[in-house]
Amino acid sequence: MTPKTLLFFLPLFICATLIASDTLYFRLSNPWNTVKSPTGNYLRKCIKENDYCHCWDYNASNILVTESFYSDTNFTRKLFCHKYYNGAKGFLEQIRCYENGRLNGYFVDYNEKGDTTDYQVYKNGELIKEWSSDIPDRTANVIQLTQEAAEFPGGQSAWISYLSENLTYPKKLKKEKISGQVIAKIYIAPTGTITNVEIIKSLHPLLDYEVIRVIKSSPKWEPAKQNGKAVQMTFTQTVNF
Predict the structure, then answer these.
(1) What pLDDT score does 234 carry?
(2) CB 6 within 8 A of CB 237
(3) Is the N end or the C end of the chain the one with fewer CB atoms within 10 Å?
(4) Global pTM?
(5) Which part of the chain is the TonB C-terminal domain (predicted)?
(6) Band of the pLDDT at 134, cuts 50, 70, 90?
(7) Residue 135 above 60 pLDDT?
(8) Domains (ranges, CATH) in the chain?
């Protein structure tokens, strides 16, 4: 069956393989330095993705305060770019980029309007460049972090056509005439491969399976990029039956 409507959503950042048994939850008293405490005010959710962990930390008000990546389950070796949010208003306050546990790349501060207020550039843990809004000459060395979403070969219209042409309504359900939405979360690795499909709104097991089957059979995507470097990404796909 051709889906009636296909909605497409693309957040900036992303991830890869999700296995239910590899999802961890625990409490922290300090999410910035991973200080665990059973009575901590912060809840961390971590998903094992290939050879690293992708984590999100929430405060007592259920506001996301950090998004981070680690190469070990002790959460000591930081990877990729970590995002830090204001705990009261939820806006992005800071991005720090890491490689093998060391600062490597940009370390950027933002105000509530989203303007860059300070930035530093690190290489293998060493500071090599910095800029601050306190410096009178605000035109010098202002940095913009560029984000590019992953793209299906041929673009969004080609992706919608691919789904429309390949999704089939299961024969076993034709008498039941079940209709509604399946919403899937799609994980794209830095290689452009779809590594996992997670159903976040189920309609029927057979319809869920059909969505997963078709999406996983997708050709390689052009991976998401951050400042020219391929990064992992997730996006949400809605399919109407």
Answers:
(1) 80
(2) yes
(3) N
(4) 0.51
(5) 154-241
(6) low
(7) no
(8) 6-13+148-240 (3.30.1150), 21-145 (3.90.930)
Instruction: Inform me whether the pLDDT recorded for 4 exceeds 60.
Output: no
At 208, the amino acid letter reads D
